[in-house]
């Protein structure tokens, strides 16, 4: 992967020097996982940070005898950084929702890179603060109507990972169970809201291609702001 393309794909690396990115590519290992495969397991020790080149994954946590999705990540994002920074076991699983291609960088190499490139170090802090703000926003929305919360989730996925298409911004057709978990609403509520949004033509669900097109972003944004 060319240095410039790698920098454009990953917001974390937007301020990193070309030398830093070239060094990262030299020490990175490429992985491919099929749908449903566990990429990382909860309670395993953190030994690498992972970058999503293509595909979609979900971060989940054990909830009794079941699992609960905490986040959906797509192309251009990264995960595994918390376990390597605080040197503790991982607190979540990461599961491939689609065939996924990743790059991993070992803990020691990644820590060295952060110390060598102050711009990347600063950008890493910015990204972690952004994630914290997102968590705070979700906490603020806990009392919001389910439709508002789900619209916020759809907009977030579209803005972070969506690809422009002739039918709108395209995201992966996440299951209603995962949508419900991430949005913190009931599965039945998620199904009814998604059907309603589809009927209104604010979104278009293409089950054959396993994609959701966010057709009317303005309406979804207006709905998401009703907190």
Structural class of the helices, strands and pairings?
A: alpha+beta
> What value does the average pLDDT take?
89
- Give the N-terminus to C-terminus distance in angstroms: 42 Å
The SSE order reads: HHEEEEEEHEEHHHEEHHEEH
How is this structure best described in words?
The protein has two domains: 3-139, Jelly Rolls (Sandwich), CATH 2.60.120.10; 144-224, Winged helix-like DNA-binding domain superfamily/Winged helix DNA-binding domain (Arc Repressor Mutant, subunit A). The protein contains nine helices and twelve strands. A hairpin with a 4-residue loop joins strand 11 and strand 12. Strands 1-8-3-6 form a four-stranded antiparallel beta sheet. A four-stranded antiparallel beta sheet has the order 2-7-4-5. Strands 9-10-12-11 form a four-stranded antiparallel beta sheet. By secondary structure, the protein is of the alpha+beta class. 44% of the residues lie in helices and 26% in strands. Helix 2 runs antiparallel to helix 4, helix 6 (146-161) packs across helix 7 (176-183) and helix 6 (146-161) packs across helix 9.
């Amino acid at each position: 992967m060319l240095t410039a393309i790698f920098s454009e794909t990953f917001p974390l690396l937007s301020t990193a020097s070309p030398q830093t990115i070239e060094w990262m590519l030299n020490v990175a290992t490429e992985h491919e996982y099929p749908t449903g495969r566990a990429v990382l397991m909860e309670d395993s020790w953190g030994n690498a940070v992972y970058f999503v080149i293509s595909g979609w994954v979900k971060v989940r946590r054990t909830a009794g005898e079941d699992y609960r999705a905490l986040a959906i990540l797509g192309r251009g994002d990264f995960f595994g950084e918390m376990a390597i920074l605080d040197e503790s076991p991982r607190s979540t699983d990461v599961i491939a929702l689609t065939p996924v291609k990743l790059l991993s960088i070992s803990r020691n190499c990644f820590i060295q890179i952060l110390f060598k490139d102050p711009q990347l170090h600063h950008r890493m802090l910015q990204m972690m603060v952004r994630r914290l703000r997102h968590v705070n926003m979700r906490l603020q929305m806990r009392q919001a109507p389910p439709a508002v919360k789900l619209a916020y989730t759809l907009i977030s996925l579209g803005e972070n990972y969506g690809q422009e298409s002739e039918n709108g911004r395209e995201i992966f057709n996440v299951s209603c169970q995962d949508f419900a978990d991430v949005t913190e609403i009931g599965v039945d509520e998620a199904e009814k809201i998604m059907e309603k949004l589809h009927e209104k033509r604010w979104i278009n669900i293409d089950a054959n291609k396993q994609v959701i097109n966010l057709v009317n972003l303005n309406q979804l944004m207006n709905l998401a702001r009703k907190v």
